[in-house]
Amino acid sequence: FRGKVTTGCIVGFLAKSDVKNLKDIQQITDKKPLLTPQVIRLTKWISNYYLCSWEKTLNYVIPKTRKAWLNKFDITDISPPNSPRLPEDDKSSGNEIKLSEEEVKERTHLKDIENIINNKKFKTVLIRGNDFNSRMKIYLKSIRKTLKEGRQTIILAPTESHLSELSALLEKEFKDNMVVFDEKIDQKAKYQKWIKIRNSQVNIALGMRSSIFVPLDRLGLIIVEREHSSLYKEERSPRYNAREVALKRAELEDIPLILSSETPSMESYWNVHENKFLEAELN
Where is the Helicase ATP-binding domain (predicted)? Predict the structure, then answer.
């Protein structure tokens, strides 16, 4: 470092090192780590999978107001048109109700997804259908169930308009328990929301592709709306696909993942064909 004081990111510890003349750490700048151990593992996977240096990946993930322009290092081990109206829950007056074929199918899918949420294990569900209200009904029930279990949720949207649409509906029920990362907020506000999440003051994070990295430490569910969108692909390094990163994070944290689309990606179709994903067709 040639005598300079440099900010870095601690990603793990080794019992011994072959590097000579190691420098002492002068100060810990954050009371609580900005990244969870699971997110650190995820950044390491991204570095390997997308052929991007680990320090560049970390610099992308860490909020800019606290970003460390990391020196190159080599660590091989790490520690462990109008917005639709919010769909209401089904209500019964006690009289016999005849359900349409679509309603029967929807209730069956809700039950299947509820069972997956209850299992609290890694499993991917592909919701296929163009009825946004039906998808929202599934999202809401899944989020409620996850919150009831004391766990947290990440929801991704591909564009600002889709983000606003989802936010307007979710805030009706979860306003005080969620944060939204949109393009309008400045970096200071983004950092404040990040800290709010890190301190477990809220349990739902909603945003576009980079929100897959938010450091929820009791993550129990990830939802990717319109998973086929090419806008989930980052054009600058690290050139990741947020859908694929969501899949990997769900696997690493052993939690359910819900993907939805009117026209699913070829990758998701293939995974359904190979029985790796459960498909729920709404129409």
Answer: 116-282
* Residue 250 resides in a domain: yes
Distance CA 179, CA 173 (A): 13
Q: How far apart are CA 78 and CA 10, in angstroms?
A: 9
Q: Is the separation of the CB atoms in 268 and 228 below 8 Å?
A: yes
User: What was the pLDDT predicted at 99?
Assistant: 39
Per DSSP bridges, beta strands 219-224 and 256-261 are parallel
Parallel/antiparallel/unpaired status of strands 219-224 and 152-156: parallel
Task: Find all residues with CB under 8 Å of 50, minimum gap 6, and list them.
Answer: 238, 239, 240
Distance in angstroms (rounded) separating the CA atoms of residues 228 and 58 = 26
Residue stretches of the chain with pLDDT short of 50: 68-100, 104
The reply to whether 180 falls in a domain is yes
Range of the domain at 218: 101-281
How many Å apart are CA 249 and CA 142, to the nearest integer? 18
